[in-house]
């Protein structure tokens, strides 16, 4: 019975040895955070350039060569044509002259390069409490930019934490 009375002493010494470590633990202060608005000075879009190629059919109009006029063989053909010319009207000759020349389409498939630009971000210059800042944002904020203001006290020897 005499030994059981001191059985709890090792636990007591262990607790006392750990006590200074608990007392040296640093306390982190919570951040003081509020939301506010900054005045936007300038917004510049940042573009991504995309290139794409595809094939298209391009056609050119090529006039066909005029057929050679037929040689009139004999006297009989010349006589028929002269009679035909006497009875024909001048309007018909103008109509035949006004007919469009026959054309042929010369088509081929060619690659066509296209370039597209699209905004992927926005570089925003803004001022808050007289100090100018620049941030890259996913969207254009307009005239005012909602910002998160965080204030924590400076403690010497402590490394600042980044959000």
Strand order of the largest sheet: 3-2-1-4
Order of helices and strands: HEHHEEE
How many alpha or pi helices?
A: 3
Helix content: 10-25%
Q: What is the β-strand count?
A: 4
The biggest beta sheet reads: 4 strands, antiparallel
Question: What's the average pLDDT?
Answer: 78
Structural class: alpha+beta
Shape: rod-shaped
Give the distance, in angstroms, between the N- and C-terminal Cα atoms.
Answer: 59 Å
Unreliable residue runs:
none
Radius of gyration: 47 Å
Beta-strand residue percentage:
35-45%
Overview features:
163 residues, 45% strand, 3 helices, single chain, 23% helix, alpha+beta
Describe this structure in words.
The chain has three helices and four strands. The protein has 163 residues and is an alpha+beta fold. The chain has a four-stranded antiparallel sheet with strand order 3-2-1-4, with no helix packed on it. It is rod-shaped, with a radius of gyration of 47 Å. The mean pLDDT is 78.
Would you spell out the secondary-structure blueprint of this structure?
Elements: H1 9-23, E1 32-63, H2 75-87, H3 90-98, E2 103-128, E3 131-137, E4 144-151
Antiparallel strand pairs: 1-2, 1-4, 2-3
Summarize the structure.
The protein is of the alpha+beta class and 163 residues long.
């Amino acid at each position: 019975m005499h030994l059981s009375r001191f059985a709890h002493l090792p636990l007591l010494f262990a607790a006392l040895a750990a006590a200074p470590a608990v007392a040296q633990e640093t306390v982190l202060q919570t951040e003081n955070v509020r939301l506010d608005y900054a005045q936007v000075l300038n917004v510049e879009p940042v573009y991504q350039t995309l290139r794409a190629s595809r094939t298209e059919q391009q056609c050119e109009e090529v006039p066909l060569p005029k057929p050679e006029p037929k040689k009139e063989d004999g006297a009989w053909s010349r006589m028929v044509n002269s009679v035909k010319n006497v009875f024909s009207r001048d309007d018909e000759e103008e109509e035949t002259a006004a007919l469009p020349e026959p054309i042929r389409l010369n088509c081929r498939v060619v690659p066509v390069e296209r370039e597209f630009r699209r905004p992927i971000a926005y570089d925003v210059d803004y001022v808050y409490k007289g100090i100018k800042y620049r941030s890259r944002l996913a969207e254009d904020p307009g005239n005012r930019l909602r910002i998160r203001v965080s204030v924590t006290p400076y403690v010497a020897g402590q490394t600042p934490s980044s959000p």
